[in-house]
Write a structure and sequence with these properties.
Layout (H helix, E strand, L loop, with lengths): L2 H11 L3 E6 L2 E6 L9 E7 L18 E5 L2 H8 L25 E2 L8 E5 L3 H26 L1
Antiparallel strand pairs: 1-2, 2-3, 3-4, 4-6, 5-6
């Protein structure tokens, strides 16, 4: 899998989404008819470490991370608990190797918001991720309705 294949999958399979590039990452947002300035996050692809996000060691050559926000209930089913928010520049207090590739993991910084991630997913792991992408999409649609009011 490549970042572009993942982004294209979302653009081709999720109605009402847009691609936004900012902060050194590419994001898929739910924003039908561009009603909101950006929309609501569904998924991002990050290809380099950020100032406050170095937990996955994205400085390695050809390493990228797919990130998405799911429901807290689903996150808890996967990982047992939703951690506390880390202080700026730190990672969440969870016993995971956040630099491991091809494995669904809690997001090293945003797990407290029930975000998950995968570094360099294989086709098989991406297939495992698709139901979570659908969940993130449905969740974003709910948030969009609330914001639009």
């Amino acid at each position: 899998m490549t970042p572009d294949k993942i982004l294209n999958y979302c653009l081709e399979n999720l109605d009402g989404v847009v691609l936004v590039e900012s902060w050194g990452e590419k994001g898929i947002f739910y924003n039908p008819d561009h009603v909101l300035k950006r929309g609501v996050y569904i998924l991002t692809v990050k290809e380099k470490d950020g100032e406050n996000d170095k937990g996955s060691d994205l400085s390695r050559e050809n390493v990228y991370r797919v990130n998405l926000g799911i429901r807290k209930r689903t996150f808890t089913e996967l990982f047992g608990t939703v951690p506390k928010r880390p202080s700026a520049g730190k990672i969440v207090d969870m016993d995971y190797d956040f630099a491991a590739v091809d494995k669904v993991l809690p997001h090293p910084v945003y797990a407290w918001m029930a975000w998950v991630c995968v570094l360099n997913p294989s086709e098989q792991t991406f297939d495992e991720l698709k139901p979570y992408i659908q969940e993130a999409y449905e969740y974003a649609k709910e948030k969009f309705k609330k914001r639009k009011k």
